[in-house]
Amino acid sequence: MTDMTRPGGQVPSTETVLESMDRLRRTLTPGALDHTLRQVVQAAVEVLPQVDRASITVRHDDGRLETAQPTDDALLRLDGAQYDLHEGPCYEAATDEVHVIAPDLAHDDRFPRYAAVALEQGVRAQAGLRLFDTPRSQGALNLYSRQAGAFADLADLGDLFVHQAGIALAYAQEVEDLRKALETRRTIGQAIGIIMERYELTDERAFAFLTRLSSHRNVKLRQVALEVVEETQARGLPDRPGQPR
């Protein structure tokens, strides 16, 4: 669902849209997740018209909202006010799966409490564009402008930006998932080695020990393994069999 408030003005020309997308493709290069998120907000300021600052709101699976990669630290306060008030374009875009455009916050009756905070900080217009939606988290791109009337004609260009950014983010998420999987495998392997040496068990029985502990405590296997490794390191003991004490 898309909620676009566009009180008038001209739709960007095809030439303008194509030029902006070409600039975006050159700006967004494959990389790690944090790197890609940072590129997205920087590209938003560079490519999208009338954007002065940008950030990303991430909604975690426990409902917690967090700001990622703000181009200006002042956005932490503005984003945080929306989280606290449960009101504002970035809050709605991150929680309700919509794009929300507010070209004139001073006269927008949808966000009366948040608008006062934004106007005090010199923000006259704002947009929240749903950026990604995964089983573990949702995210919205937050755009801020000092100009009243900004973003009134963002719809088509904004959708294309989100599409292009989504391709880069999907790649980055695959890289991140692979990295976490490798880290999990390494941590479990370390924990198995510790249990084998500590209790003189085979690797099969050491793994079974960890899985029983995980099931008994109702804690993920990786977390149990991490606790074994960290406890061993804290005591100054070797974290792999065969290492000298």
Using brief descriptors, characterize the structure shown.
elongated, alpha+beta, disordered N terminus, 2 domains, Arc Repressor Mutant, subunit A, single chain, five-stranded antiparallel sheet, Beta-Lactamase, 53% helix, 245 residues
Give a written overview of the molecule.
- By secondary structure, this protein is an alpha+beta fold.
- It folds into 2 domains: 164 residues, GAF domain (Beta-Lactamase), CATH 3.30.450; 56 residues, Arc Repressor Mutant, subunit A (Orthogonal Bundle).
- It is 53% helix and 13% strand.
- The protein contains 8 helices and 5 strands; from the N terminus they run ααββααβαββααα.
- A 5-stranded antiparallel sheet has the order 2-1-5-4-3, sandwiched between helices.
- Strand 4 and strand 5 form a beta hairpin.
- Helix 2 packs antiparallel against helix 6 and helix 7 crosses helix 8.
- It is elongated and about 70 Å long.
Question: Can you name the CATH architecture of the largest domain?
Answer: 2-Layer Sandwich
CATH topology of the largest domain: Beta-Lactamase
Placed side by side, the strands forming the largest sheet appear as: 2-1-5-4-3
Strand content: 5-15%
Biggest sheet statistics: 5 strands, antiparallel
Radius of gyration: 23 Å
State the end-to-end CA separation: 61 Å
- CATH top level of the largest domain? Alpha Beta
Q: What would the principal axes of the Cα set say about the shape?
A: elongated
DSSP helical segment count: 8
Structural class designation: alpha+beta
